[in-house]
Design goal:
- There is one protein chain.
- With 201 residues, the protein is an alpha+beta fold.
- The protein folds into two domains: 34 residues, no CATH class; 141 residues, no CATH class.
- Helix content is 44%, strand content 18%.
- It contains five helices and eight strands.
- Helix 1 runs antiparallel to helix 2, helix 1 runs antiparallel to helix 5 and helix 2 runs antiparallel to helix 3.
Length: 201
């Protein structure tokens, strides 16, 4: 890449501007460097057998829910929310169920409708429940989060808008989820040809 910075200025001689004598300063910088990262990360933290084990993707969800729990507890300490710690625990359970169910349902409806009608002889029998086949959709998870928080607020008598404000903490989970997506080799960018400043293979 070439970077050229040009500055034109016209000096004055005896108080008279000499426009016919331009001076140009040119700064030229050239470089071409390529960093290539070869992706070879294991999606499992602990791999027990087959598709069973502790995955980075599931850890991202756990970290997201735990982070939200401790942030809301901090809000309780600062008297910025009417929820008690027991309410926070219940809210996290509600939204965890909503995120997982909504995310899976969103994936099935938008990307693979056969998951809803396909059954086999292996546990858990219904393909929809095998979240390691296909995974979850973030937009479905967000919808599930909103619905679960609204239902929780209505059942417990809290402000629906306040509980939906707390849903903004879901952004922490999205942060961890995107890291897990990278580890899994998902959501990759476009294919490039030739040299590039940074590439993942």
């Amino acid at each position: 890449m070439n970077v050229v910075i040009s500055v034109n200025f016209f000096p004055r001689m005896n108080g008279v501007r000499r426009a016919q004598i331009p001076y140009r300063i040119g700064i030229h910088c050239s470089y071409m460097a390529t960093w290539t990262y070869f992706h070879n990360l294991d999606p499992f933290i602990i791999h027990l057998t087959g598709n069973f084990g502790l995955r980075w993707y599931s850890m991202a969800y756990i970290m997201g829910f735990l982070s939200a729990y401790y942030v809301i507890c901090w809000l309780i300490h600062k008297k910025l929310t009417p929820l008690s710690k027991k309410d926070v625990t219940d809210l996290i359970v509600w939204v965890a169920f909503g995120v997982i169910l909504g995310g899976r349902l969103g994936y099935a409806l938008f990307y693979d409708q056969e998951l809803l009608t396909k059954f086999d002889s292996a546990f858990p029998y219904w393909e929809f429940l095998k979240i390691y086949h296909g995974g979850l959709a973030s937009h479905g998870g967000i919808i599930g989060l909103i619905v679960a928080a609204a239902l929780f607020a209505r059942k417990r008598g809290f402000s629906t808008w306040h509980c939906l404000d707390l849903c903004a903490l879901g952004g922490i989970g999205v942060f961890f989820g995107r890291i897990a997506n990278f580890i899994n080799g998902e959501l990759f960018g476009r294919v490039i040809e030739g040299k590039a400043l940074l590439a993942v293979q």
